[in-house]
Design goal:
Elements: E1 5-6, H1 12-21, H2 26-37, H3 51-60, E2 61-62, E3 67-73, E4 79-85, E5 91-98, E6 103-106, E7 110-112, E8 127-130, H4 133-147, E9 153-156, H5 166-177, E10 189-193, H6 197-206, E11 211-215, H7 221-227, H8 236-250, E12 254-260, H9 268-278, E13 283-289, H10 303-315, E14 320-322, H11 336-341
Parallel strand pairs: 1-2, 6-9, 9-10, 10-11, 11-12, 12-13, 13-14
Antiparallel strand pairs: 3-4, 4-5, 5-6, 7-8
Helix pairs in contact: 1-2, 4-5, 6-8, 9-10
EC number: 2.1.1.192
Domain Radical SAM core: 99-329
Binding site for [4Fe-4S] cluster: 113, 117, 120
């Protein structure tokens, strides 16, 4: 498939252009695009496409399909965790969360990760490779097929750093928002990053109103360097400046993700420093009691500490919530399921 084009990498407009490039009428692009989003797995499934065109498409392109390798469902039925098998034999992990009012999918955008965050299971084997746009997209398509439910919300918070796979992430965002495709609204998409500053500016300049979430985890540069190697490259001040630019360009509130780790970053001193850092910014803090990873030493704080930290921020006019863990009975932290399956 080396020189073949993956058709799921295209928006509808790009599909029409591709058809013209291979000597076909543009309307054939709309037909093929429609078949893909009806779930066609092969060109022979496309009944109103002439055989000659199907044969040509077979020569120059492929649709792109990943397979469900394993699926686990939580006891309450609200969370499903999937392992997907890629064409090259690699495995990625995806989570579906079925809330009463919406269905959210958390996608991976890399096989592994090279960011090295000390509390994360996904990064323990390093980065294997980037996912192509269609491989990110197909996680959602396969979950919709499997469950019969429309995915309304999307978070790029699975394995990998989206801004370390920037070009493919950017194209994926275009595809997933395409009107006659999955048509997931930009305001229903959240991208989580550990803070690759130049790419935050590039993302802001796209002026698409997706939600930006920053993995912060400490208000102090030195402490952040201990748990997140990326902090050796970009300071908290640089990240916050980029966030202010993002807010200015998109008019969207930025979320700061803060994993609470017992004895590391959960004290009153940290809460005070965090409140001071974020004062006056259009933002929200998502407090995440750390997912305990077998190979790591980190523990989550006692419940009282978690809510005391939240209350301190709220009292200083910093909106803060505690993330409710869903599906903890089917393997905790992101990346753990994939590692256990290897």
């Amino acid at each position: 498939m080396e020189n073949k084009k993956a058709l799921k990498n295209f928006t509808e407009a790009e599909m029409k252009e591709f058809m013209k490039e291979i000597g076909e009428k543009a309307f054939r692009g709309t037909q093929v695009y429609s078949w893909i989003y009806k779930g066609a797995k092969t060109f022979d499934d496309m009944k109103n496409i002439p055989k000659s065109l199907r044969e040509k498409l077979e020569e120059v392109s492929y649709i792109g399909n990943i397979d469900i390798e394993l699926k686990l469902e939580s006891k309450d039925g609200k969370t499903k965790k999937y392992l997907f098998l890629l064409n090259d034999g690699n495995i990625i992990e995806t989570v579906m969360m079925d809330y009463d009012s919406r269905v959210t999918v958390c996608v991976s955008n890399q096989v592994g990760c090279r960011m090295g965050c000390r509390f994360c299971a996904s990064t323990m084997d390093g980065l294997v490779r980037n996912l192509e746009p269609w491989e990110i997209l197909d996680q959602i398509m396969k979950i919709q097929e499997d469950t019969g439910k429309r995915v309304s919300n999307l978070v790029l918070m699975g394995s990998g750093e989206p801004l370390d796979n920037y070009d493919n992430t950017k194209q994926f965002l275009k595809i997933v928002n395409d009107e006659n495709g999955l048509n997931i609204g930009y305001r229903h998409i959240t991208l989580s990053t550990c803070g690759i500053v130049p790419k935050i500016y590039e993302l802001a300049d796209l002026e698409i109103p997706i939600n930006l979430a920053i993995s912060l985890h400490s208000p102090y540069d030195e402490k952040r360097k201990e748990i997140m190697p990326v902090a050796n490259k970009y300071s908290i001040k640089e990240i916050l400046d980029a966030c202010r630019y993002y807010i200015k360009k998109t008019n969207r509130r930025v979320t700061f993700e803060y994993s609470l780790i017992k004895g590391v970053n959960d004290g009153k001193k940290e809460a005070e420093a965090l409140a001071s850092l974020l004062k006056g910014m259009l933002c929200h803090v998502n407090l995440i009691p750390i997912n305990e990873v077998d190979e790591r030493d980190f523990k989550k704080p006692d419940k009282a500490f978690i809510y005391k930290f939240r209350d301190y921020l709220e009292e200083r006019n910093i909106p803060a919530t505690v993330r409710i863990s869903m599906g903890s009975d089917i393997s905790g932290a992101c990346g753990q399921l994939r590692r256990k399956h290897k």
